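(Protein data)
===
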Amino acid sequence: MAIASERYQRVFRKLEREVEKLSAQQRAETVHSFRTSTRRLEILLEELIPERTRKQKKLLKMLRGIRKQAGKVRDLDVQLAALRTLKISLEPRRKTQLLQGLIELRAMLEKKLRKTLTKQVAREIRKRLKRTSKEVKPKTSRDPLTAARGILSRVAPLNGPLTEDALHRCRILVKRARYAAEFAPESSAATEFITQLKRLQDILGNWHDWETLTHTASERLGDVNQSSLVAVLHNVTGGKFRQAVAAVSASPALHATPKPGPSLASRKPGAKTAPQAARTESAA
């Protein structure tokens, strides 16, 4: 079944608005909305459309560069939000110090993003979006639900201990699968499948937010032996890790899909050596 035409057109229209908004101001909700809209367009052109033109590849390249910069800002936003919810009486000054450091870093990254996405660049992207929206032919697209299940098939086997590396990869693939499935025409099967993916994405994203905050705190304040705040964050992240593992293990969306791939090696949750490449893939 081809993609629902009104859904893909909505993605183009929304992204046009988000590009304009982001070029004017970089509030947390604006940054997040731009990133999710960009991700949806990437999924449309990379997973559902058989072939991309040179101009479409150029558009994706432009958006990807801005999305990565926006992702750095988004990472700071979710870390700040998580840290503000942490109610502890230990080391109040260190918590304030960490908050202030994150706020200052966020301001610096916001400035860089603003310099990259100028009004002129925003106009060029919007022009390319309008042109691409007319080029996409829904009738020749892949079936969104089939494409989504194909994306999930890239998740490594779940028959052994889940590692942080595996959860990072699973989080990214679940997000991509959800966005692909959302292009499907409305049906009870599609709605249930998307609901399963969204629930899993939220749990994995929550773990990733705290894991990123814990890593940042460790870099700035020292390890668990040097800061009780970092020790608390490690404990919280460990709990989020266990919740994420349980959610992945119980997910119908994942267990209904064949999962070819290498076996997973075990690693303790909360270790400070999680891959840097995975960290830079922010929550969206």
In short: The chain is about 75% helix and 0% strand. Confidence is low (pLDDT under 50) at residues 257-284.
